[in-house]
Every structure is written in structure tokens, then in C-alpha cells.
Design a protein that fits this description.
about 375 residues; Rossmann fold; about 40% helix; alpha/beta; 2 domains; globular; about 15% strand
């Protein structure tokens, strides 16, 4: 089978890298097209995944609309040469359009309910849309639900074991605590109208948290002079090691908040439209705290951060919550491999017997591995 994947965000690299490795070992072929977004192409290079670039894309809504025909044309040229059997993406309108032109199925993994523009652009041209069960937006008869989070594709079971040497690289001792703050650029289509955490509260969060732990900042945008000394200076592929051993994430990024939930690290996420998965991770497992961008909620979020940093046995409590979550979720990469390899039969089976089909991928079959991990050493 020949599969074309369109990568639009660094997180998508992680969603599909284990899937690609497993499928290649079975003889399947891939062509990856990647947007020049943040560290996406750097990650592809690190993981040894060949790719072609489709440029940086647009930033404003008008820019994004004008970019569509350019990206469609570029993807069409590559697809005509590669001749894929299936197109795979996370909300790519470009893959959707070109797949329809070439008469091939487009399969989407989508966990962002707020991506209204993307839904408008890709849903009519897509054959199968796979969403987490916590995804409440209805996308029609093409939608299939799976009981997991996309971050389970790469941060659980045998896919990831954190490297404790990251603490030494950060200049920390084995027992030193630290906090990661994550600020985003707010340039996605579904981020229009958002402002995020105020500069004043970014500075205040740093001042409050550094009373209890070392502070590091990961930011998509240039930091002001007052905060530059806190910048997290590690290779992009080591970010998950840093998150795994962190005492806390204070974040404008929903992906990183969910990554911490899967890793067993407390996270605080601020966004006026919190994601369905971060809400699920809070309500069902107590792994994430969701706040809006209001100044009142920013104050509450900082207070919650201090509360967590002063909580005894914090990481052990989150590790137990994490194991409970894993016992109820599926191995999303294994599910992805099965679904793509057996499409369209897999789609029909999931429609008829969703729970029965899903059961074979549950993580409770793998928890002995998880119980052997030690995040406090």
C-alpha cells in the first residue's frame, strides 16, 4: 500500500512517526508532505522520515485562504508522481481536495472541535473521520469514535521511555524540581480572536513558580527581555523528556497539556475554548486543569500552580491517575495500523461493532510495562 501523509503541525509528526515505522516494516510505502511550521521539519529529519516541504502557509485568515490553491497544486504534483492508495492527515484540506481529484480515500484523525474552518474545507471531500470519544461535535456519517487521545500514539506503552539525563542537560540535580511554561503564537485559524496570557501575568507566573522550582519557558514567539533568560534550550525531540520529569506545565498549548496528562505530569491549560480532550482529562482523571484567558482565570491558574508545587507526593499522585487513564484507553497507534491496513472493511466494522472492535487495542493489556516506569528517579 502507498500512503501519502500531509503534516501541518509538529504534533502531527509524533502522531504518525510510529505508525510509519510499523507500516514500513510491513512493506508499505510513504510520501510525507510537511508544512514549515515551528519544529515540524526538524522533527521529521531527526526521526529519519523523508519529506517534501509545502512552505510556511498563511498566517491570517485571508492568507490561509490564498494559500489553499498553492498547497493543493503542490500536493497534486507530488501525488501524481507517487500515486498513493490512501491519503492520511489531521484536518488537511489540501489532502482532502487532492484525494478527491485523484479518486482516492482521505482518512482523517481529528481531535480539535474548534477547527470550524478546517471542517468546512475538508469534511465534504473525506471518506473517514476518526475522533476521540470525548469529541462532541457531530461531523456526519463519516465519523468514527475511538476511546483514546492522539498523544497516546507516542507517549505511552512501548513507544516512549523518558530519559532522566535531561535533568543534567538542564543544569539540574536529581532531586531538583522545575516547571515548564509554554506560550504559543495564536496563529492557527481556530486561534483567531485569542490573546492568551497577558505579559504581566507571564512575568508574575515566573516570579511565583520560581519560589518553589526552577523555571523554563518554551515559546513560539520572541520573548521579552525580562523572560529571555528562562528560555528552554534543548533539541525539539527532547521536549517530552523535559515534560516527563517536570513538576508542572503552565501552558497555552493544548497539545502539551495533553502530552503531560499522558506522561503523568500536572498541567494547567489556558484557552477560552478548552479542548474536548483536556476537558476529558480533567473531568475523568484529574490530570489537567482548564482555565479561560480571562484575567480572573489567569490569577486562578497561577494560584493553582502554586498549590500544586507545594503538594506532597505530587508526581506519585499523578502517576496513579495516569495509570487509571491508560487502563481505560486504547493503543491509538495499533488501532491506526489496523484501521488503515484493513480499510474500508475496518470502517464498516467500527460502524457496526465499535466496542468489540476497539477492545483488542486497550492499554490494560500493557500496564505491566507502565508499572515498571519510574518518573521520580
Amino acid at each position: 500500500m502507498k500512503i501519502l501523509i500531509d503534516i501541518g503541525h509538529p504534533a502531527h509528526v509524533h502522531y504518525y512517526r510510529n505508525f510509519i515505522k510499523i507500516m514500513e516494516s510491513k512493506g508499505h510505502k510513504f510520501f510525507v508532505l510537511a508544512r514549515d511550521k515551528d519544529v515540524a521539519q526538524s522533527l521529521l529529519g531527526y526521526y529519519g522520515i523523508d519529506y517534501a516541504s509545502r512552505g510556511k502557509g498563511g498566517h491570517s485568515l485571508v492568507g490561509k485562504i490564498l494559500y489553499i490553491p498553492k498547497a493543493d497544486y503542490k500536493l497534486y504534483k507530488y501525488a501524481r508522481q507517487f500515486k498513493p492508495d490512501i491519503f492520511l492527515s489531521s484536518c488537511s484540506s489540501y489532502a482532502a481536495h487532492v484525494s478527491k481529484l485523484l479518486g482516492k480515500p482521505h482518512i482523517v484523525f481529528d481531535d480539535t472541535q474548534e477547527a470550524n474552518f478546517e471542517h468546512l474545507m475538508y469534511v465534504p471531500f473525506t471518506e473517514a473521520i476518526l475522533t476521540p470519544k470525548c469529541f462532541t461535535k457531530k461531523l456526519g456519517a463519516k465519523q468514527i469514535y475511538f476511546d483514546g487521545y492522539m498523544e497516546l500514539c507516542y507517549l505511552s506503552n512501548g513507544y516512549f521511555q523518558p530519559d532522566f539525563r535531561i535533568k543534567e542537560e538542564l543544569g539540574l540535580g536529581p532531586s531538583d524540581n522545575y516547571v515548564v511554561l509554554r506560550f504559543v503564537s495564536w496563529q492557527a485559524t481556530h486561534d483567531i480572536g485569542h490573546k492568551g496570557i497577558s505579559l504581566e501575568n507571564k512575568i508574575r507566573a515566573v516570579q511565583e513558580f520560581e519560589k518553589y522550582a526552577k523555571v523554563f519557558i518554551s515559546s513560539e514567539v520572541e520573548l521579552p527581555e525580562d523572560l529571555k533568560k528562562y528560555r528552554l534550550k534543548i533539541d525539539p525531540h527532547k521536549m517530552h523528556d523535559a515534560l516527563a520529569f517536570s513538576s508542572l506545565l503552565f501552558s497555552e498549548s493544548s497539545t502539551m497539556a495533553s502530552e503531560c496528562a499522558v506522561l503523568g505530569t500536572p498541567s494547567i491549560y489556558l484557552d477560552n475554548n478548552s479542548r474536548c480532550y483536556t476537558q476529558d482529562e480533567e473531568k475523568r482523571y484529574g490530570l489537567v486543569y482548564n482555565y479561560s484567558e480571562s484575567l480572573t482565570d489567569q490569577d486562578k491558574a497561577i494560584e493553582k500552580g502554586v498549590e500544586l508545587l507545594t503538594m506532597p507526593e505530587l508526581k506519585n499522585k499523578w502517576r496513579k491517575r495516569r495509570l487509571k487513564m491508560l487502563s481505560e484507553k486504547i493503543d491509538v497507534t495499533a488501532f491506526m495500523v489496523w484501521f488503515i491496513e484493513n480499510y474500508p472493511s475496518s470502517f464498516n466494522l467500527m460502524k457496526r461493532y465499535p466496542e468489540k472492535t476497539e477492545e483488542q487495542f486497550r492499554f490494560n493489556n500493557f500496564l505491566s510495562f507502565e508499572n515498571n516506569l519510574n518518573y521520580n528517579t
